[in-house]
User: Fold these one by one.
Assistant:
Number 1:
Amino acid sequence: MKTDIILAGVGGQGILSIAAVIGWAAIDSRLYIKQAEIHGMSQRGGAVYSHLRLSDAPVASDLIPTGKANVILSVEPMEALRYLPYLSGNGWVVTNTRPFVNIDNYPDAVSLTAQLEALDKRILVNADELATRCGNSKAANMVMLGAAVPFLGIDVGQVETAVRNIFERKGNAMVDLNVNALHEGYTTAQQQMSLRSANPPAS
Amino acid sequence: MQKRLLLGDEVIAQGAIDAGLSGIYAYPGTPSTEIMEYIQTSEEAWGKKIHCRWSANEKTAMEAALGMSYCGKRAMACMKHVGMNVAADAFINSAVTGVNGGLLVVVADDPSMHSSQNEQDSRFYGQFALIPVLEPSNQQEAYDMTFYGFDISEKLELPVLMRITTRMAHSRTGVRLREKRRQNELRLPANPRQYVLLPAIARQQYQKLLHQQPVIEQEAGSSGYDAFIDGTDPSLGIIACGIAYNYLTENFAGNVCPHPVVKLSQYPVPAELIRTITGKCNKILVLEEGYPLVEAQLAGLIPHPGLKICGRLDGTLPRAGELTPDIVAAALGLAKPADRPAPAIVVPRPPALCKGCGHTDMFHVLNEAMKDYPPGCVFSDIGCYTLGALPPHLAINSCVDMGASITMAKGAADSGLSPSIAVIGDSTFTHSGMTGLLDVILENTPVVVVISDNLTTGMTGGQPSSASGAIEKICLGLGLPEERLKVLVPLKKYQTENVSVLKESIAYAGTSVVVFRRECVQTAARRVRSAGKQ
């Protein structure tokens, strides 16, 4: 078992919380893990990413080589596309579709959607909307984590336990919110996958 | 055995706690900040009364760590690579005095300049100081090396440098912890004269340091951190330093490299290991993060017949920037996967000042006050406000080193530039701005020093600032006349009056200080959140 994941988003969107949950679940599942992240200046509203590697054998490099990632998990749609050079030929893109616009030259909605829809293996989720339905749009990162669970190689129950542990000190309401968000994302991804397998794209 | 998921920085912090640390001294700087932060938030460290307050700068940190070592206790000084330039005087001389309690200096380099103004390689500082240098290749090694570093520091009675880079500092992995050790008791040095570097004593101490050099090299050859790993294909031999070893093995099935390899994690380079690999291979590829230190040592000035040295100097690897598995694969001539470029609609998303940031309002005032003057009159410094160099502000013209805004503005004013403005943050001001301000005040040089005070060390994540509550007293204490000190609140509603105060200071033919003070929005939000929890 070996899963290489690129986590992507904008500073402040909570990708390090996603990484913390996966890390916890991986250690609990007795997997080897390396997770490289970016701190410092780029966190100020800039593009941020993390390389997360899970394996049942020791992991060498802290960085994922280009063309080797199994999953791009992004909390922001343009940021998902930024890291396509890292994605392997049969890798999945799991992304939030809600843009985070803090620059003047952000691409227009039509071209952005076209690029996302052109991806062969994709899970597209309006995570902000689903998180709001769970009670708070700030849980969008956990919705996205849930949507990526089918591709991680870790059982959803293990991930839920990790969410409970990570958010424990923030109180029961926060635990429930984030667990619900996780399952909301997970269910959405499974629905999209079964729809796709029932109606495979024409090739 | 316990296994915990920790950042490289945190691993070193936990290792130091477990190895019997008594005090850590540091100034925040990416990618080193989390070493101190981990100890500050560790209940275990508080229980053991480990000293863990931030220092005013890296030099004061290094000196305080040396003072703790003088008393026989284990001390650590941590900084980013450019902080080493600030600490260098104390660092180099600590190798001449030698140490008593174990002294570990941890420096985090930032190749590719993710959050820095250069990518200097701290291994050169270790070589320059003639002391052992450790460069862990993974987090477990970094943990173990904190124990080992304190051990050899006490055995050789020398400071030890641990050099890490961004990807080691900021990568998380599971680490097995060891049995904990007690701290040392207070015990003054047997020979306190060794710390008195009068020329006569310094010459003796320096001779002692020189005589230790073969021992330091033997230590590197026998510790096990440097190793020769034989391979089946001697057409190429590889020397891989620190984390470059991982980028090498990443490229081979089962992480096993078919070529003979020297893995280097401790310096000075053991000559015996180099002789072993050059005895087997006529072509050597040197993989190292940062500058070509080992490669240049090997290549020397005159050619070695029958031996080809490849690396950053001969163009096999890029001369600048961090290594990656891809760059190493290309140097090995391995096939790369098909390109899958990002679509053209993807545009850069550079960092920006936060919404509501006080620096933004300060720049609005500054730009308005300066609009009738030609561009090029504003010098600045290192912090979030350096982003004022970018659109939309385009307000500042320099960012060189901590505190340089004030002294560069002085030199410019001395050259006849008028007006000459310095923009500096509060934490940078107490780090290295105060002495420069003294120079300016002593000559009443016509410089306006703008101190943009957000009451924190913002860019590194909001650590307490030594300047908080002290700026006015410092300026007046340095001799600034009271009427030349103004304190403003950078808010849109005060724009007009703030502009007129700044304009008045600019028009004055002498030194003025204008403090813009408003709490960082990030630390303010955190304060409100934690108050809500209590």
Number 2:
Amino acid sequence: MNIHEYQAKQLFKEYDIPVLEGYPAFSVDDVEKIMDEHFPEGAVLKAQIHSGGRGKAGGVLIANSKEEALKKANELFGKILVTKQTGPEGKLVRKIYLEQLAHHDEEYYLSLLVDTKAAKCCFVASVQGGVSIEEVAETDPDAIFRMHVDPVKGINEQEAYELASKLELKDGLKDQFVTMIGNMYRLFIERDCSLIEINPLTICSGQLICLDAKVAFDSAADFRHPQNVGMRDIEEENPLEAEANDSGMSYVSLGGNIGCICNGAGLGMSTMDTIHYFGGDPANFLDLGGSVDDARAKKAFELVIREKGVKGVVINIFGGIARTNLIAKGVCEAIDGCSYEGPVVCRIEGNGDREAREYIDSCKGNIYHADSCSEACQKMIELLKEVA
Amino acid sequence: MSIFVNKDTRVIVQGITGTQGRLHTDLMLKYGTKVVAGTNPKKAGEEVFGVPVFADVIEAKKQTGANASIIFVPPAGAAKAIMEAADAGLDLVVCITENIPVLDMVEVHEYLKDRKTRLLGPNCPGVISVDECKLGIMPQDIHLKGRVGIVSRSGSLTYETIKQLSTAGIGQSTTVGIGGDPIKGTSFLDVLKAFNEDEDTDAVVLIGEIGGDDEIVACEWARENMSKPIVGFIGGTTAPEGKRMGHAGAVVNGKSGSAKEKIGQLQTLGVRVAPISDKIGETLMEVLKDRGLY
């Protein structure tokens, strides 16, 4: 789960990771108050959306007076920012972070994440900050340094100093750096983060400063971190994906015209691949998840057809333990209870499939059987051609 | 023979008294698996389908001579359950639980380093040696005994593949679900090595996904060390970059680990790759015919 920069910086403050003075604003009135109280000389206005690349998209603006700040805040609130990560639809700016103006020179990159291959936490650092680390990895892989952390012993101080040396930090800054990464690690472990990324890390008046901050939490650990859950901003999430997640399912929007309901991530992905293989274009992908019942299946169908552009729905279920009759029941209830008139092709096999077929036969919708995933996908593509 | 489990495997169910634990204990017993004990610290002395419940794994092992376990404990306690099984010195522990925090798995991974216990999973369907032992949650009636091994990261797609093979009359020796999590106990490589040693396995189906390079590492080893043919399938060819597809491990980050790239590399390593999941059985049959095994 991602959080905003202003929330990440709040956490940084709690963990003594150096950031500039800053305050979140949720309205132009807030901006006015903050400028009056804290930044009469000017401030940086940073749009708070869950995406990188905000600067390039015009989401980071400098104001040298209160008036300028208010003018720019008016422009920024309600603006849709399109970055490399948001997709063409962009993201609406609802919050702005106001931060003190500060001059800086060097820009470094620093992050902490789990290297799943080594099964250890790993710091990633580079002297080439301020640009995307993926870019650096492509153009200059030797400029990226890594430091793994022993899960039992924690950070090795000597290695930490070595990392500071690789970044060519001056002696005084090395101590700051080592203290800082110790605090980052503590934050990472104590709050079950999946990523802490600082890009850029800079030096302002002889102090290391995190100019940007990105923190993501491991949602699997939500059960032990109510305070992490409290930082969720549901407005930043795709509403269909969020709703599916909240019902124990997983959902991905894909942009095509064929909705796709499956049980299991692997089966779902391969169904999507099969649709592509026969020349179709999936609109989304919904994995029903474990222990599915009719209520959840009903919900699943309702979600999938809400996606813009869905013209037909392929359902591919291989029920081992999952009871396919309940899935069919839920789907048929959804079809009979809504205004959706597009075709539905079901490939349902496994535990309870005879009863599942009976539900489908008695369903009033435009619904068909298929005996395999390929047949279902091909059938759907043909049906959509007929409609067109 | 077969790999990891056989007719002599004696099983402890950790979390036997929960809904999933009960359901699958019943199903495993019906398959013929020797489920000899269950654990729940608060319900020692009870029975589930005639299986005695003990307070912990060490006691359960002492009383029953069990050598393997399967875990149905919720995510908050799953890592502890795995380490408990390792402490008891079991040979194999299968962790079905999904959504275990990644940092818990970092701890588990470190803990298992110097111990003999093999972890399968987490977030996996388990392992089955056909007609001998089912240590998992896979449906029972799709299997056919034979000489093809299957190793997979996905549950549902594995059942689909088994069904295809059985329908075509191609039986299986052992099917291993290694699970969809980024940090896991048993890798594709571990399973290929075991299949290579197994005299009852003639060929292997390897079902991978986007994300990571486990499949490549395994097949690089196989090219040098394994003469048994491998047929591959990689799900997620058309997955958009950076999107979670239900499995935490199935994320394409940039170019590396994309399904297309993986397929290309596997083919270079001499693995025949099925273009869609419905053709896994067919592709395997071609390879078996080429090798004179069918």
